[in-house]
Amino acid sequence: MTTFTDDLGADVVLPEPPRRVVSLVPALTEAVEHTMPGLVVGATDYCTHPPELDVPRVGGSKYPTADAAAQLHPDLVLANAEENRPQDVQALREAGIAVWVMEAPATVPAALASLRALLTGPFGMHIAGAATPEEPVPAWLAEAERLWTSEPPPVRARAVVPVWRKPWVVLGRDTFGGDVLRRLGVDHVHADADDRYPRPKLDELRLRFTDGDADLLVLPDEPWEFTDDDGPDAFPGVPYVLVSGRYLTWYGPSLVDAHRTLSAVLP
């Protein structure tokens, strides 16, 4: 038996390295399956990457079916403190299933540190092609750390970043997506909000541009699928960019491509 400690301080006891994993977090599904193909045996409906992943689905991230996950006989279930309900985690643990809960990261370095703890801990013996022989770190993780942990560049734009419409919801304080933008030179104007995901009225958002607080609208394609025809129409004349929601909010192998792609599309 080996005991690991997850991000919330809970003991995760495993008799051996996990070989059957159910992931309730899309970003962790991609990270584990990309690094160690074949370990993920169950995932949520929203686990869209890797695209070739063909495993049973256990419901949505917010409301997975604990029974469906348990019926897959996993050695380990991966969850997230923000995306998954505590009662679902507790139900799985009461069924005798080990659950690793990742804290919702407020910054890119925090996410990378959490991924490093997970992948070099419970999964350490599975990882092949490590960046260095001394530590079982996946090459993509080492590259993401190199790209994202340097000093952020000077701010060159101030943005409003909606993630939902009807009602409008924007990135607020202590969000991973907000830190991604900050590390690419784009500040977001709700970074000091009381809430992580404020719900300002549309008139309030428009005032940010007319008052000169913001000069850019950043529109991801998830969780709301903003397009050229859905989103910019609410902000006539405001400069905007459409970005991949996965590149903005997922932590995992996509961070490597995200740095190059987002740098190219942001002004």
UniProtKB/TrEMBL annotation:
Family the entry assigns: Belongs to the bacterial solute-binding protein 8 family.
Q: Which keywords accompany this UniProt record?
A: Receptor
Gene3D superfamilies found in the cross-reference section: Nitrogenase molybdenum iron protein domain
Native source species: Prauserella halophila
Taxonomy, top ranks, is: Bacteria, Bacillati, Actinomycetota, Actinomycetes, Pseudonocardiales
On whether Translocase is a keyword of this UniProt record, the answer is no
Q: Does the keyword Transferase apply?
A: no
Specify the protein name: Helical backbone metal receptor
